Structure formats: structure tokens, C-alpha cells
Task: structure prediction
Amino acid sequence: MLKNLPSTTQALIAWTWPEIEPYYKDLESRSLTAANADEWLADWTRLDEMLDEMYSRLSVATSVNTADKEAEERLNKYLDTIFPSAMAAEQKLKEKLLASGLEPKGFEIPLRNMRAEADLFREANLPLLAEQQKFNLEYDKILGVQTVEWEGKEVTLTQLKTTFQEPDRARREKAWRLITERQLADRKAINDLWQKYMALRLKIAANADKPGFREYAWQQKLRFDYTSEDCKSFHRAIEEVVVPAARRIYERRRQALNLDSLRPWDLVDGWFSRPTEPPRLPALKPFQNIDELKGKTLAIFHNVDAQLGKYFDTMLAEGLTDLENRKNKAPGAFCTSFTSIRKPFIFVNAVGIHDDVQTTLHESGHAFHIFETARIRYIQQLSVPMEFAEVASMGMELLAAPYLTEFYTEADAARARIEHLERGILFWPFMAVVDAFQHWVYENPQDGSNPDQCDVKWGELWDRFIPGVDWTGLEEAKVTGWQRKLHIHQYPFYYVEYGLAQLGAVQVWDNALKDQVGAVTAYRKALSLGGMVTLPELFAAAGARFAFDAATLKKAVDLMEKVIGELEVKI
Ligand SMILES: [Zn+2]
Result:
């Protein structure tokens, strides 16, 4: 048993490395045998829980008030003085456990992951990985200074993209061309950086004795349950069954907008996503204030499942949410864990639009995952792969969808749900482009390092997967799309997870349409397994298949299209 750990949040956030280090030293020096493994692991867990929560508390403090200088200092101090030392101390404990040869029950997956990480670790890669971080900053910097002059004012490209939601088509086109021209001005800078990224990644892979960077990334992402061939099957399945459905969505919208063809500036993101709403429809207004958002979200969860409703009750009662946008709040949304008390915290920037509802439902799905795993004994068993973690959140968005009438009239709820489902369908082909591109890049590192070849490949993939939008005369913008997809540069291979998770989420929802109680029970059961079983087992527990094939995908897309059809008559 560890003694004298901080007993209040105040004490926890003031913890220092000289106070923490002895606990690690103690764990490191104890003998580790089958007889005391449970106690040793439980103590390690307790220590990690505290540190994990310390980081969460400190980072939440800076997110909820970006002007809080003291909070910022505390977080920086943690990152500078505690984090690196704790990581090194952690590594020693992992090595100690691996060296012991013990295989505690329920530890098969965490041990498998630790072995893979140890196997991939190379001292020589540490400076290269740091270099990669610097390239990421460089990439951010190139994009971060992209502004244009619009109606006499300097605006960021993100700000100007809101124009794509407006009814005036000529204005949309003008904004789109201005944005594109600015992006293309950085074409050379991004090409140069890309070549540096590629050379570095090939070196990292070689240092780790991997035949290529894809093999390195696979192990680094702990992808044991699927192969690159599975991803390619998934791409083919998307081409076969999702691309035609996406075409139908584009076509329906083209007709509704009364256009000869859909051009990129007729899409809300100017790229691949949903076409702009016809001008006759006013924006959805789900709530007037945050209490209304909280109350109605709570009512939705109680409709989905009594226990999930209770979890959200707890979050509201214990201040485990911060939902409203205000001055001095960090952007974005997230769910984090206060691991020592095994409770979640969700952070949203709600301003009164439908996206806020969707985001709150999504982050709550992650929060429920934390509640459901509260009884798992060891912290190493809590880490859930992204491919399933997003089933919890995306699944919750779909399970909650029938109850959006808490916020809206039938007609408006139908509109919101159609938008959500269409977005889901249109995402898959885009995801396939991003993923297939990266497989090609790292399978053909020489061509993949050549930006001109990258353009050719991206253009080919774009025509294959996103044929419903007319890019005639805009070829230069089309083929350079890979330059603007941040993940390709900063988080290689990280993207297919969302596509796989969405397929799981739709299956959970499909089950719920037939038997809500049964489906939600299975969903909660799967969440409660944390990271103790494989991905196929997690999906199976949730009543879904971890799948890459056209048949499973077709069933999902057919359902989505059928429900869109049913909802359309309600508008
Ligand atoms: Zn998420």
C-alpha cells in the first residue's frame, strides 16, 4: 500500500517530482513474484492514477480559463519537471514486469502492447522523433499564417470558409477561389517539408529494423487485429457500396439547389462534405442557454438508458462538465478522465447551434466509457484502442438521435438527423482517399517522396472515391488536396480508425432499432471491458462485427439511406 498520497485535489495539483520519485523507487526496488504481483500492480495503478489525474486537472484548469497564468505555470512545470521523469520511471516498471515473466490474469493485452513498444524502442530514434515534432510545428506555422483580404479585412481561411454556408453562390465561389489561391501559394513550402518528413520517417523505420514506415507505424499504433490488406479491402468495399450512396446524396442536393453541377464551393467545407442548405431553411436553434442544453441532453440519455441517465446526472451534480463557450476558454471539445476517482470530465464550446448538441452527445459517449470501466482494477487495462473508443462516442450520437425531439420539432429533428447521416456516408469515401493515399506513399517511398507523383496519385484517388462533385478547371486545387490534410503530415496512418468505428457504431444503432434495451446492454457491456480484450472481441461484445467487407458496409449504408428517406417526408 502506498502511504501519504495527496488526499485532496489541491494537494494533488501541487505535487512535485521529489515527492513522487520515492514511490517509483519503492516499486522498482521491491521484488516482484506471483505472490505479490497483485499488490505491486495495484500500487503502480494507484500511483499512475494520481499522476494521470494530476495532468488532467492541470490541463482542464488551463482549458477552462486560458487567462489563468498560475494554472499555465503549473501545467508547464508538470510538463518540464514531472512528465519526462515519470515517463522514464514508468518505462523501468514496464521492463521490470516484462522481465518477471509473470502473466497476471486480464493482462494479456497490456503485456502484448508493452512488449511491442519495448521491441520498437530505439535510443537512436529519440532525436528523430523530436525532429518530427519540429516538422509538425513547421507545418502548423505554414497553415497558421494563411490569411486573405476579404471585404477590406484580413481574415483566416477558416473564418472565410463560413461563407460556404451562405446562399449567394457567386460569393461562395469568390471566397473559394481566394482561399485556394492562398493555399496554392504555399505549395512549394509544403512540398519541401513533405520531402523532409519522408526522409525522416524512412530513417526512423530503418532504425527500428522495419522494412518500411508502414510496418513501423502499424506496431507503434498497436494494430494487432488488422492488416494493411484489411484496410485495402475496406477501401474497395467503400468504393463499391458507399460511393454510389454518396453520389445519390450529392445528386439530391444538386437538384434541391437547382444547379447544373455541384462545384466545390457548393459544399459546406468547400471540399467533399455536405452540400450547402437551400436558402429557404433557417438555421436550427436547439437551445437558448446552457441549462437548457444540459436538461435536454439529460432527458435524452434517460430515454436511451436509465443508468446512462444516472451517469449524466452525476456529471451535472458534481461539476464534471463545462459546456458553454465564453471568453478565455480554449477552443474545441474533449473528454478527459479524473482517473483516481474514475470519473470523466467533458469540455465543449457551445454557442447555441446544432453541432453543440452533437458534440455534447459525442463527448458524453466517451464519458460513459469511463464510468463503465470504473471497476477495472489496473490502469494498464483501461487503455482502449481508438477503433473502439470512437464506437462509444459515435454510437452514442446514433443511439440518442431518435430523441432529438427533446430539442426540436419533428421536422427540425428530422433535418438534424438527415444532416448527421449524410455526413456519415460522405465521410467514408474521403477517409478512403486519405488512407489509400498513405498506403501508396509508404509502399512506394520513392514516388511517395516526390510531390508531383503525390499529386497524380491523390487526383486518381479523388476521381475514384469522390466522383459526385465537378472539379473541371480546378485540377490544380484538386490534386494538391493531400497537402491540406493535416493527418497525412502530422499523424501518419491515423484516420482509418474513424471509418472502422463508424461502421461499428451504425451496427450498434441497427441493433437498437430492433431492441433498444438489448443493444444498449451490449454496448455498455463492451464499454466495461476497457482494453482487456482484442478489437474483434470488443466489437462482438457490443453486438457488432469488426469488419472491412462490402456486405457489412452495405447493410450499414442501406440502413442509413433508408432512414434518411423516412426522415425526408417529415420535413
Ligand atoms: Zn471522439
Summary: The chain has 25 helices and five strands. The chain has a mean pLDDT of 96. The beta strands are 147-150, 153-156, 321-324, 334-338, 343-350. Residues 362, 366, 390, 393 surround zinc ion (CB under 6 Å).
